[in-house]
Write a structure and sequence with these properties.
Blueprint lengths: L17 E3 L5 E4 L5 E3 L2 E2 L11 E4 L7 H9 L4 H12 L17 H12 L7 H19 L5 H27 L12
Antiparallel strand pairs: 1-2, 1-5, 2-3, 3-4
Helix pairs in contact: 3-5, 4-5
Length: about 190
């Protein structure tokens, strides 16, 4: 069996990224097609006016390369919706929006991200990919049902770990490193 990704809307964004659009509105991306503003959830058909500026990732200032990747994206919210509908052959459905506040503080997320790097220090690319696959499986398990704050905490922790391991893999591939060398963990 072969699985092929047909469409990943807003591939340059990660869950809970904050972007400022061309009209000056700040939006929170809650993926894969959803955005909301600080004052209200919005229907899927509403979205930011491109171009977008990434202003926050994991409640911290994004890296310059992340800002550049978002700024380089072209299109529009409607084009992303159309691309998704064409790829999957489905109609866009609206679901009632229920915003669940984060239970992990920004400081805790930053600490978790640093801690996620520790177990992969000195590991090969293949070993880090294996760790990332384990993190993905844990995320899928935790994201199935979120019933209470404890479930939400586990899911948010899994998201931070998964995204951090994605960053480690990107760093290793970009530098051509055979082993991951970042061993610093503080917090």
């Amino acid at each position: 069996m072969t699985v092929e990704l047909l469409c990943r809307p807003y591939e340059m964004l990660k869950d809970h990224d904050h972007v400022r659009d061309a009209a000056g509105t700040v939006w929170t991306f809650t993926g894969p097609l959803d955005f909301h503003t600080a004052d209200r959830p919005t229907p899927r058909a509403e979205g930011p006016v491109w171009p977008l500026t990434l202003t926050e990732r994991y409640t911290m200032q994004p890296k310059p390369a992340e800002v550049e990747a978002v700024a380089a994206a072209t299109g529009s919210h409607q084009e992303e919706l159309d691309r998704w509908q064409q790829a999957c052959g489905a109609d866009l459905l609206e679901f009632p929006a229920v915003e669940v506040p984060d239970v992990i503080t920004p400081m805790q997320k930053a600490m978790l991200a640093r801690q996620a790097r520790q177990p992969v220090a000195g590991k090969t690319l293949a070993e880090v990919e294996e760790e990332r696959e384990g993190a993905r499986r844990m995320y899928l398990l935790y994201s199935k049902v979120v019933l209470d704050e404890e479930d939400q905490t586990r899911m948010e922790t899994a998201v931070v770990r998964l995204d951090t391991l994605d960053e480690v893999l990107e760093e290793m591939r970009a530098s051509g490193a055979e082993r991951y060398g970042n061993t610093s963990v503080s917090g």
